[in-house]
Amino acid sequence: MVRQLILRVARADREQDEAGFALIEILCVLAIIGMLAAIILPSIAHVTTRARLESYAVETAALLNADRSAALRRQVHVTTLVDAEARTIRSGSTGRVLRFPDDVAVDAALATRCADRSAGRSIDFFPSGMSCGGTIALARPGNGYEVRVNWLTGGVEIVVR
After folding, report:
1. I want to staple 89 with a disulfide (CB 3.0 to 4.6 A). Which of 98, 99, 149, 154 is the partner?
2. Whether residues 87 and 112 fall in one domain
3. Which is nearest to 64 in space by CA: 153, 161, 160?
């Protein structure tokens, strides 16, 4: 009887020890998860959202409008440089540069000649309010926007692609 009681107590102790996880086991699992996250998360590509793409289009339109306003206000010729390969747009009045991320495709349809000179990489605004015109397309898979500059009025509009 004493022997049975000792065996029951030993068995109960063993079952109680196996009932839960030790703190060290939980810490090891959390450390492994943390290391995996540190390795995997930086390699996941940061994708431009639809809202952020729309924000880029609005920023581009605002920059072009500012250059047009500067040309009208100062009565000078203002040139906005568009470099689609480098994904940049440089304001001719303020020097501000817009840079777009790698996952945003930038395409520009610009006039090859404007005001009796070669253009091709810029949108020019004149003191009269006119411009050389052009279209800057910002796109990513699934959606896109076009920022259009009217050559006659110099007006800037955003069109969903």
Report:
1. 98
2. yes
3. 153
- One domain for residues 21 and 99: no
Which tens digits make up the pLDDT trace of 49-93?
A: 899 999 999 999 999 999 999 999 999 999 999 999 999 999 999
- Whether pTM > 0.70 for this model: the answer is yes
Residue 71: burial class (beta carbons within 10 Å; 0-12, 13-18, 19+): buried
State both tokens at 156.
């800037």
* Maximum Cα interatomic distance, the chain, rounded to a whole number of Å: 113
Q: Nearest Cα to 109, choosing from 62, 148, 58, 65?
A: 148
Q: Judge if 92 and 40 occupy the same domain.
A: no
Question: How many CB atoms lie under 10 A from the CB of residue 106?
Answer: 20
